[in-house]
UniProtKB/TrEMBL annotation:
Segments passing through the bilayer: 39-58, 70-91, 97-117
Stated name of the protein: Uncharacterized protein
Top-level division of the source organism's lineage: Bacteria
Keywords: Membrane, Transmembrane, Transmembrane helix
InterPro entries the record matches: Cyt_c_oxase-like_su1_sf (IPR036927)
Gene3D superfamilies per record: Cytochrome c oxidase-like, subunit I domain
Length: 127
């Protein structure tokens, strides 16, 4: 088992690859209409998830909790739903998916905040 830090980084890299390919496609077609969705895929999916992965790698006590797994599930579901949700909102197809994705994403961040407050930063060292 490679751990929760690895899972956050692996999913983050996947989001970055899709987000960057999307950016290249936007540039090549000179159609930037969906750039807010591209930005959220890169910023939540890549930047935020990589930061979370770095935290869990530095803080093994937090990484081994059930809350960390719930956090990973909520954040992953959040990205998967919010990005198409933003596309739908931008193309006048409704805002429900964007709203659901937003709630999942903030719920993940709340789990992260609780883990940070409970476990602090870094590996515990013997006194
Ligand atoms: C191969 C890499 C990338 C390419 C080719 C690319 C391309 C683009 C393009 C064409 C736009 C629209 C610009 C405009 O309409 O003015 C854009 C917007 C944006 N991109 Fe990227 N991008 C890339 C990677 C990233 C990454 C890694 C991030 C964040 C970590 C990012 C964040 C943003 C943001 C915040 C915007 C502005 C969105 C908005 O104003 O609604 N991009 N990108």
């Amino acid at each position: 088992m490679k751990g929760i830090g690895f899972a956050f980084f692996a999913l983050g890299v996947l989001c970055a690859l899709i987000g960057m390919a999307w950016g290249i496609q936007m540039s090549a077609t000179a159609n930037h209409a969906l750039s807010p969705a591209h930005a959220h895929l890169n910023l939540i999916g890549w930047v935020t998830m990589a930061l979370m992965g770095a935290y869990y790698t530095l803080t093994p006590a937090a990484a081994s909790t059930r809350l960390a797994k719930i956090h990973l599930a909520l954040t992953t579901a959040g990205v998967i739903i919010i990005v198409p949700g933003i596309v739908m909102a931008l193309t006048q197809q409704g805002e429900t998916a964007a709203k659901i994705g937003s709630v999942l994403t903030i719920a993940g961040m709340i789990c992260f905040g609780v883990n940070v407050l409970r476990h602090g930063l870094g590996a515990k060292t013997a006194p």
